[in-house]
Structures are given as C-alpha cells and as structure tokens.
C-alpha cells in the first residue's frame, strides 16, 4: 500500500520497534534491506549528476529534498525518495519502483496526465518527451540528469540561478517566490550540514533568554549614561555649577538637560 507524504512508513516504524525490543536478533529480510537502501539511491545519483553537469554545489540535492524529500530519522536529515508520485495535492511514497509505476499507469488509465514522478518530480504532462517510458522516468540517474539539463537551460536563458530556480517551479510569481525561498533554505542546510537547524535553534533560545533577563529600563539608562562619551562630557559641565569659581548656574542648567 502507498504511504502518504505526511506520514512515516508504518512498516519501518514497526521494524524499528521490533529491533529495539529484541536487540540480539540482527536478521534483516531482503525486502527490508531494499527498503532501507532506497533512501540513498537519489542522493548517490544526484551527486554524480551534479559533478557531470557542473551544476552549483548541492543545488539539485536541495531541489530533490523539496520535491520528494522525506524525513529519515537514522540519518537525521531529509532525503529524496525515488518512488514518489504526485498528482495535484495527492503525493505518495511507494515502497518499490514497481508499485510506483503501477500507480502512474492506473492514473493514466482514468485520463489523468498531470503527474510528477521520481526523485526530482518531473512532470509528465509538461515534459512529455523527457523519458522513453516509465521505467526510465523512475530511474534516479535519468530523472536527475533531465532535471540538471533543464535547470542549465533555464540558467542559459535567464543568466541567473535564482531565476532558474523560480522558473523551474512556475513562471507565476505567487508560485515561484515561496518555492525559491524553500530551495534557498534547503540549500543552506545541505551546504552547512544537517546540524544547521539545531545551531539556529540554539541561537534563537540564547537570544530569547537574553531578552527575558534584560535589565530594567532605569538600569539601562544608568549604563548608557556612564558608557557614552558625550554624556560624560555633559555630566562634567553639569557638575561645574557646584564650583564657586564659574558661577554660571543658568548656562550649566541648560547643559544638564537631556537632548530632545
């Protein structure tokens, strides 16, 4: 059965629970091994394509995470899933390539053509000549290669990778602007590493703590008065009023006033 994008695969969760309860047993079935290894298929193929097509570092990886990414707890990161099929708002992760192909055929049988497939979610309606058949469409290497060539074509037309990313999603601003922001965020994580979100959360908590423990307003005023040079100068002129030599009370009172 297909798995919704919004949920983790239940068989994987069940398998992890069993392994946790029965630790001495380390036997993994061939089907489970194939399922676990599928998480690395897209990543391995995309890395080769990025080098071959000379795309910007990790750009295609970031796009794949937006298009077909699913959270992988053991890796601590979002990884693209090769057997992903999306029809409108209905996006599904299938356990095998065969199941994904059968689902696409069933959609075509009822007249649905707007279908995204594979690691990069290539649309079969808008790119009818991208692949010879569905077997090739779900091949991670072929899927990523077509994506890289399409991005390079957009870059050649617009002379900007940012604009190429936007046009990759849509030519309409209300669609491509949010998409570009998502890709930029994913690109930052792929370049800085999976620990970047944790680092940002630690910084945010630290800043929030500083705000909570900030000194009261009157303490900040005293600190600013004692630390700002021009305030010190005005303070010295104010104190001159107490000297019996100057006797310039009116002038010194004006000097003591805070600037508006």
What does this protein structure show overall?
The protein has helices at residues 10-21, 30-37, 41-53, 59-68, 97-109, 134-137, 140-158, 161-169, 173-192, 196-212, 217-227, 229-239, 249-256, and strands spanning 3-4, 69-72, 77-80, 84-87, 90-93, 116-117, 122-123. The longest helix is centred in the C-terminal third of the chain and has 20 residues, at 173-192. The chain is α+β, with helices and mostly antiparallel strands and 260 residues long. It has 13 helices and seven strands. The protein has two domains: 3-203; 215-256, no CATH class. Mean pLDDT is 75; it is low at 6-36, 229-237 and 239-243. The protein is elongated. Strands 1-5-4-6-7 form a five-stranded antiparallel beta sheet. A two-stranded antiparallel sheet has the order 2-3.
Number of alpha- plus pi-helical segments? 13
What is the general shape?
elongated
Number of strands: 7
Total domain units: 2
Largest sheet: 5 strands, antiparallel
Q: Unreliable segments (pLDDT under 50, ≥5 consecutive)?
A: 6-36, 229-237, 239-243
Based on CA atoms alone, the radius of gyration comes out at 30 Å
Give the helix/strand class: alpha+beta
Order of helices and strands, N to C? EHHHHEEEEHEEHHHHHHHH
Distance between the termini: 72 Å
Strand order in space, largest sheet? 1-5-4-6-7
- Mean pLDDT across all residues, rounded? 75
Strand fraction equals 5-15%
Percent of residues in helices: 55-70%
Key terms:
single chain; 5-stranded antiparallel beta sheet; alpha+beta
């Amino acid at each position: 059965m297909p798995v919704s994008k919004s949920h983790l695969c239940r068989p994987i969760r069940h398998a992890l629970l069993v392994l946790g309860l029965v630790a001495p047993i380390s036997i993994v079935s061939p089907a489970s091994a194939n399922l676990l290894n599928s998480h690395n298929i897209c990543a391995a193929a995309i890395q080769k394509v990025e080098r071959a097509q000379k795309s910007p570092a990790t750009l295609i990886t970031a796009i794949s995470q937006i298009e077909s990414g699913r959270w992988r707890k053991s890796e601590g990161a979002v990884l693209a899933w090769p057997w992903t099929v999306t029809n409108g708002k209905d996006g599904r992760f299938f356990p095998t390539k065969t199941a994904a192909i059968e689902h696409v055929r069933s959609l075509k049988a009822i007249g649905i053509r707007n279908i995204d497939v594979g690691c990069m979610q290539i649309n079969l309606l808008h790119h009818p000549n991208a692949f010879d058949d569905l077997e090739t469409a779900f091949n991670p290497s072929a899927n990523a290669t077509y994506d890289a060539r399409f991005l390079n074509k957009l870059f050649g037309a617009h002379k900007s990778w940012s604009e190429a990313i936007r046009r990759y999603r849509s030519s309409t601003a209300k669609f491509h602007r949010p998409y570009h922001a998502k890709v930029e965020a994913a690109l930052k994580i792929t370049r800085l590493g999976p620990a970047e979100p944790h680092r940002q959360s630690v910084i945010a908590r630290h800043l929030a703590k500083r705000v909570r423990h900030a000194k009261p307003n009157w303490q900040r005023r005293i600190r600013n008065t004692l630390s700002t040079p021009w305030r010190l100068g005005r303070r010295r002129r104010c104190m001159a009023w107490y000297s019996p030599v100057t006797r310039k009370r009116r002038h010194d009172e004006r000097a003591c006033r805070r600037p508006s």
